[in-house]
Design brief:
The protein is of the alpha+beta class and about 350 residues long. The protein is built from six helices and 19 strands. It has helices at about 145-155, 160, 165-170, 170-175, 275-305, 320-340, and strands at about 5-10, 20-25, 30-35, 40-45, 60, 65, 75, 80, 95-100, 100-105, 105-110, 135, 140, 180-185, 185-195, 210-220, 225-235, 245-255, 260-270. Strands 12, 13, 14, 15, 16, 17, 18 and 19 form an eight-stranded antiparallel sheet that branches. The protein has a four-stranded antiparallel sheet with strand order 2-3-4-9, with no helix packed on it. A four-stranded antiparallel sheet has the order 5-6-7-8, with no helix packed on it. The longest helix is centred in the last third of the chain and has 31 residues, at about 275-305. It is globular and about 80 Å long.
Length: about 350
C-alpha cells in the first residue's frame, strides 16, 4: 500500500520535451505529461478511455493530446474535446487529470484526492535551483520495492561497508550513534563522526592531510524524500569555520513505479560561489558509483527476501530511524484508508 495524498516526483524538468509527450508510471498508474502554452504542465492518465491505448503513443497538439489509435483529442483537464467522425462528444469521454507542479527543477504529481493537493507539502529541495549550489541531475531505476531503498537511506551505518572505497572511508561511521527525531511527516537523522580519515572522494576537492570531522544531518520525508546537509572540516579548524570544509547538500527522492519497482531521482550539490565543472562531474561520478553499490546490495537482499518472504529480520539499535519511518508510513496509510471508507 502507498500513501496517496502526497506529491511524488515524476521527472526532472529537462526530461519533459518542449513540444512532445513524456510518460512514466507512478504507483502502478501510467501518466503522460506535457508542457502547456502558459509555461505550465499537464499530467493525464496515460490510458485512452476508448480502447485503453497509451496517449503517449499519440501526439501533442497545442495544449491537447491526440490518441494515436483512433484520434480522440483530450485537453489539459482530461476532457475529450474531439472524436473523429462524431458530432457529439459523450460526457463520459475523459481521462483522469493529476495535479502537477514544478519546484526547483523537480516535477511533482499528486496521486490522491485532488482537493487535498497542497503545495505547502512540497519538499524544500532548494539546492536543485540555487546559484551557489552546483550538481548534475541523476536518475536510476530499481527493480526492488521502494521500502528497501528507504531502509538503506535511513541507516547510514552501511557507508562503512557498502561504500568503503567510495563515500565511506572509515568504520567509525558505523560506530557513531545517530540521533533520531520524529517529525510530522518524516524522520530527522543526525550523525556526527569526529576525527576520521577523509573519504576518497573528498580528495577530489582538495588534499586532506589531516583527519576530518564529518557530519550527516537529514530529513527523510514521506513519501520517500531525503534532504541532507553533509560535509567535513579538518579537525584543526573551529566548528564554525567552514573555509576549508567540504559542504554538500543532497536531494534524493523515491517514487514507486509499481509494488516491486522504483524510480530514484538524486543530486548532490557542492557549495561554491562559482561552479567548478570538474569538481561537479567528479562528485556525480563518485555518487553514481556509490549508488550502484547500493543497488547491487539491495537487489541481492531483495532476491533473498523473495525466497522466504516470511523470514524474520532481527531488529537492532541501528534500525531506529527506519523502524520509526515505517510506523509513520503505516499510520498514514491506515488514516487514508479510514478516510476513503468514510
Amino acid at each position: 500500500m502507498f500513501v496517496r495524498n502526497c506529491w511524488y516526483m515524476i521527472a526532472w524538468d529537462h526530461e519533459i520535451p518542449a513540444d512532445g509527450l513524456f510518460s512514466r508510471t507512478v504507483l502502478n498508474e501510467p501518466i503522460v505529461v506535457f508542457r502547456t502554452a502558459d509555461a505550465g504542465f499537464a499530467a493525464l492518465e496515460d490510458r485512452c478511455c476508448h480502447r485503453l491505448a497509451p496517449l503517449s503513443a499519440g501526439r501533442k497538439e497545442g495544449d491537447c493530446v491526440r490518441c494515436g489509435y483512433h484520434g480522440l483529442k483530450f485537453d489539459a483537464s482530461g476532457r475529450c474535446v474531439e472524436i473523429p467522425g462524431m458530432a457529439q462528444v459523450p460526457e463520459r469521454a475523459r481521462v483522469r487529470r493529476y495535479p502537477v507542479v514544478m519546484k526547483n527543477k523537480w516535477l511533482f504529481v499528486w496521486m490522491g484526492d485532488e482537493a487535498a493537493a497542497d503545495p505547502a507539502l512540497l519538499p524544500d529541495n532548494f539546492s536543485c535551483d540555487h546559484p551557489n549550489w552546483h550538481y548534475r541531475p541523476g536518475y536510476m531505476h530499481y527493480d526492488t520495492s521502494h521500502l528497501l531503498i528507504c531502509d538503506n537511506l535511513l541507516d547510514f551505518s552501511h557507508l562503512s561497508y557498502v561504500h568503503e572505497k567510495t563515500l565511506g572511508g572509515s568504520t567509525m561511521i558505523a560506530q557513531a550513534v545517530a540521533e533520531v527525531q520524529e517529525l510530522a511527516r518524516g524522520i530527522r537523522v543526525s550523525r556526527r563522526v569526529p576525527a576520521v580519515p577523509a573519504p576518497p572522494y573528498y580528495q577530489r576537492f582538495r588534499t586532506f592531510d589531516t583527519l576530518v570531522d564529518r557530519w550527516f544531518v537529514y530529513d527523510f520525508l514521506v513519501p520517500g524524500t531525503l534532504l541532507m546537509s553533509s560535509g567535513g572540516r579538518p579537525v584543526s579548524d573551529a566548528p564554525d569555520d567552514l573555509s576549508n570544509a567540504v559542504q554538500l547538500h543532497s536531494c534524493q527522492t523515491l517514487t514507486p513505479e509499481t509494488d516491486t519497482t522504483t524510480h530514484y531521482f538524486f543530486q548532490q550539490s557542492h557549495f561554491g560561489v562559482k561552479e567548478n565543472t570538474v569538481v561537479t562531474d567528479l562528485i556525480f561520478d563518485s555518487l553514481l558509483a556509490a549508488f550502484h553499490e547500493d543497488r547491487d546490495m539491495i537487489r541481492a537482499q531483495s532476491r533473498i527476501i523473495a525466497m522466504k518472504p516470511d523470514a524474520p529480520m532481527l531488529a537492532l539499535a541501528m534500525d531506529s530511524a527506519l523502524v520509526r519511518y515505517r510506523r509513520l508510513l503505516d499510520r498514514m496509510v491506515a488514516l487514508e484508508a479510514v478516510g476513503r471508507a468514510a
